[in-house]
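quick one if you have a minute, typing this from the bus. below you get a single protein, a line of residues and a line of whole numbers that encode the local backbone shape. could you go over both lines and see whether the tokens make sense for that sequence. anything you notice is useful, everything is just below.
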Amino acid sequence: MAQIRIRPSKLGGEIEAQPSKSYTHRALCIGLLADGESGISGPLQSLDTEATVRALEILGGDLEKEDKVWRVTGTGGRITPRGKIINVMNSGTTLRFMSAIAALSPKPVTLTGDESILTRPMGPLIKALRNLGARAVCRGGKGRPPVTVGGGIRGGETQITGAISSQFISALLLACPYASEDVSISVEEEPRSKPYILMTLEILKLAGGKISRNRDLTEFDIPGGQIFNPIDYAVPGDFSSASFILGGAALTGSSVRVRGLDVNDVQGDKKILTFLEEFGAEVKVKRKTIEVSGTGELYGIEADCGDTPDLVPVLAVLGAAAEGRTILTNMPHLRFKEVDRLRALSVELKKLGARVREREDELQIWGTRQLRGGKFNSYGDHRMAMALAMAGLAAKGETVVEGAECISVSYPNFVKDMQGLGANIEKIV
């Protein structure tokens, strides 16, 4: 098991933002379904996106890597599996998206993964696919993976919950244009993480996908029998990954710049800039470069995290070091991530010296004047690992984060980038 070791450090300098994991997944799915060759420039190469590449190839697509461009030859929606089993490893996005796409196959395909994946909810998506005519079943208990899907998507009407994961909705939006008949989707309960649904709609539009929806993203009408056009797509920088760097600057009273972040795109996690200002940091935006400077003081905030669940570990650590109380609300869906993030954060923040009250859908955090170092558990969750490493920048003594190998799921260059900015950090395998 790998460790990250970090000692108190200031940050300074400039780096290029990591490519977006979310957009890379979606571009690969469009490439698989499109009729022809798509080019994906500057994709994120991580454990999660490699899981989607493997699934793409098993479902009949082809991919060639040329320098910084991935070229995907699609199937035109004619999914002809080259195998019966897809192992998504730890990638929940791959599991959800590729389960819906694999339902287009005439032959059954089983999707499974690691121990964490086998705990992820899949029942609502599988039920929705059955309602649309696919043969779909959860083989794990209580609607959990492995799942087996196939038989094609006929069409019709279905419902899906928006309370657990926006990935259910995005998965249906990606696959249902290839249904043989029109599809109508109703979302029950307000959808969480709406910006991720908007990402999916954005990239579908680039491929010529036709989807009508209401303003609240609770009703979708999708004509059947569509065929996506190939896309040439440049993957944008990722605010989710950059939040650990920008948050580190705010935490330590340092100043850093991250290039390649476009505040005009639909990524919900660009809200990190607003949150950092509320905590007391200075934020400057110049074209596609973000500069954050810590002032040496952090103040507790109240933040609705319904649309920004991936920012919660960063915000929680900042709250642990802030004066007063920080309240992070509207995030019951964090209990269905790689780990129950609310419970895990509650345990680890207390080790840092903060006082924490955990509720069903929120965390209340009372900050401490001095974060404490020590040994911390990542729970195999990449965002937990990076947030706790970020905490080590300002904690007293040495901080050790166990299970650091999981960082490669989304940000393989995290340690290298932190070192380049001056952090006293190392990864020990």
